[in-house]
Amino acid sequence: MVPPPAHRHRSEPRTGVGARPALILVGRAWFGGRLQPIEIAIGEDGRILSIGKDRSGAPRHDVGEAVILPAATDLHVHFRDPGGPTDAESFVSGTAAAALGGVGLVGEMPNTRPPVVDRDALDEKAQRVRGRAAIDVLLYASPTVARERAALARTAGGFKLYLSPTTGIADPPPLAAVPGLLAELADLGLPVAVHAEDPRDFLTTGRPADPASWNAARPVRAELDAVAALATAPEWLRLHVAHVTSPVAAERLLREGRSFEATPHHLLLSERSGADAKFKVNPPLRTEAERSALWEAFRRGRVPIVASDHAPHPISEKALPFHQAPSGVPGVETMLPLLLERVRAGVLALPVLLAAACDRPARWVGQPIGRIAPGHRAHLLVVDFRTRSRIEGRRLHSACGWTPFEGWDGIFPREHYRDGERIVEDGEFVGAPSGRVVRPEYAPTPR
Ligand code: NCD
Ligand code: ZN
């Protein structure tokens, strides 16, 4: 067996001993298994230096009754940059929306125009991040061009493999080719996210006219079959299944020790939540019974990661007849606020949310963020659980200007720090566009 290349990476971050703090954040945080008073010393380099009483005399910022949380990592967004349309999204609008929703790192998908299948497309995309992004960005590449894979593995942040057609993906590889492809990708060491629907289970007759018929046309069976096909993947492949909708698929992936995500829309919305194409998405919204079982699994900590699959189609395209409208819903700005509101309501435990939104996704892509711990970058949020707001599409910051969560309550972060610098203050973006392109820095330790 070839040794897993990921295991040759450096190990997890260590603290910079002896450095002087630039800022002390004072408040309460979930730490050591409970919400307790905390002082977080942040160094000049933007890393957390230490936790505990600080006597250095460095400037202090006391957040009062608010709570300090790690910023979230959203492993699944589509920012349509390059390739537009311009009223959909860009790295400028998409990362500002993410920052205001408490997301400090996004994984951006390769189904842009042109698709990220080679070094040139990846380099061009990285150019569009620099000087324009409010937060950090990890860029996925598509492994569909064999001769480009090794070069992409040295520069991309991860691979994204589509097993079925979806927005921007017309010809996915046949399922029979997938085991060989996964074996090859395992040796390249990068994380691999998979869109797992088996298109052989899709109904291609008829014209789906609402979310329930879309669910019938791309049924849960397609997800179960695709997840079964992934069981052949080498054990050391850093595999992650995107937008799992079925609690049965989730239990199988847990048994197999694989990473996977659920989206806020599959956790909170069903095929009956709305009738129009604003509720059309791949995989489809499921029945209420499936939705509530998926939520129950999430609530019990049996869904390792939450990610938005932010797919901001222009409202003009969503107004097309249902069968012609594109699939996908925006969500990067509302993911954490919707779930923080569930915590406030007492139906979701804060540590379960922090593990799924902050710690595990960052670890999957080898980033030293997502935990309040020495050596980690100070990507932090200040959240006041007493300030709820009503979600309205026209007040969100995605260029698409709509949301499937219109009228829902959310708790938006009051402040957001990137590397110890405040980028959001009183819910307004105040930072510089100095987000970075990041790549895995270490291989995650087993859970
Ligand atoms: C996504 C998009 O619009 O890019 N659409 C979607 O329905 N989720 C693509 C995808 O993730 O399938
Ligand atoms: Zn997607």
Bound molecules: N-carbamoyl-L-aspartate, zinc ion
Q: From the alpha-carbon coordinates, what is the Rg to the nearest angstrom?
A: 21 Å
Strand content: 15-25%
Stretches with pLDDT under 50, minimum 5 residues: 1-12
* Element string (H = helix, E = strand): EEEEEHEHEHEHEHHEHEHHEHHHEEEEEE
Number of helix segments?
Answer: 12
Percent of residues in helices: 10-25%
Structural class: alpha/beta
> What composes the largest sheet?
8 strands, mixed
What are its keywords?
447 residues, alpha/beta, 8-stranded parallel sheet, 12 helices, 25% helix, disordered N terminus, binds N-carbamoyl-L-aspartate, binds zinc ion
List strands and helices in order, with pairings.
Blueprint: E1 21-31, E2 34-43, E3 48-51, E4 60-70, E5 72-77, H1 91-100, E6 103-108, H2 119-129, E7 136-141, H3 149-155, E8 158-162, H4 178-188, E9 192-195, H5 211-217, H6 220-229, E10 239-241, H7 247-255, E11 259-262, H8 264-268, H9 288-299, E12 305-306, H10 315-318, H11 335-344, H12 350-364, E13 380-383, E14 389-390, E15 409-410, E16 415-418, E17 421-425, E18 428-429
Parallel strand pairs: 1-4, 5-6, 6-7, 7-8, 8-9, 9-10, 10-11, 11-12
Antiparallel strand pairs: 1-2, 2-3, 4-13, 13-16, 14-15, 16-17, 17-18
Bound molecules: N-carbamoyl-L-aspartate and zinc ion.
